[in-house]
Amino acid sequence: QLQLQESGPGLVKPSETLSLTCTVSGGSISTSNYYWGWVRQPPGKGLEWIGSIHNSGSTYFIPSLNSRLTISLDTSKNQFSLKLTSVTAADTALYYCARHFGLLQFVSWFDPWGQGTLVTVSS
Amino acid sequence: SSELTQDPAVSVALGQTVRITCQGDSLRSYFASWYQQKPGQAPRLVLYGKNNRPSGIPDRLSGSSSGNTSSLTITGAQAEDEADYYCSSRDRSGNLPSYVFGTGTKVTVL
Question: How far apart are the first and last CA of chain B?
Fold first, then answer.
C-alpha cells in the first residue's frame, strides 16, 4: 500500500525558504505516468494546489507561486521535494503531498495523501 | 485559472439525501473529483471521473455532472459522512495545465 510522509521544519522566518520533503513508501516514485503533487491548506481554510511533478521531471505550478517555487524528484531516495522562497505569513499552512493522477487528462485526482505537516511563517 | 464554487454549508437528517454542488468553467471541459476531509485528518478521495469510487468508499456516495456543475450526492446519510467536502478538477492557466479545488462544503448530519 502506497504511503506518503511529509517532513521539514515547522517554523520558517519571513523572507527565508520553506523546504519540505515527501518520502514515498510501498511503491516507486519512478512508476510511469504518475505525477507527485503538493497541496496546502491555511488554518481554517480550503485546499490549494501548489504544483506537481511528473516522474520525467516535468513540473507545473500554480501561477501565483511560479516565481518562488521549485519542485524536484530524488528517485534514489524515493522522495520529492518542495522549496518556496521569500515566504510570508500568507504561506503559513498545512502542507500535504500526494500522488497526482492525470494532470494532463480529462479527469485528475490526488490519492493517496500524506498526513500533512504544519509550516508556520513567523519571526 | 478558474474557480470552483460550492455552498459553504449544508445539513441533512440522518438517513436522508443531500446533494453538494460545485460550479465552475473548468467543469465544462474536465471531470470533477471529490474529497472528504474530517477534522484533523488529511483529505480522502471519495469520487473521481464520471462516477467512480475508490475502494472502500460506500456506494451511498455518487456523482453526476451537467454543464458547468458537478454534484456529489449522499443517499441515506450516516453520521460518519459529516465532514468537509471539496470538489476539484483539472484547469488551464494560459496554455499550461493547472489544477483547482472548490471552496468546500461543510456537511452536518443531524
Answer: 36
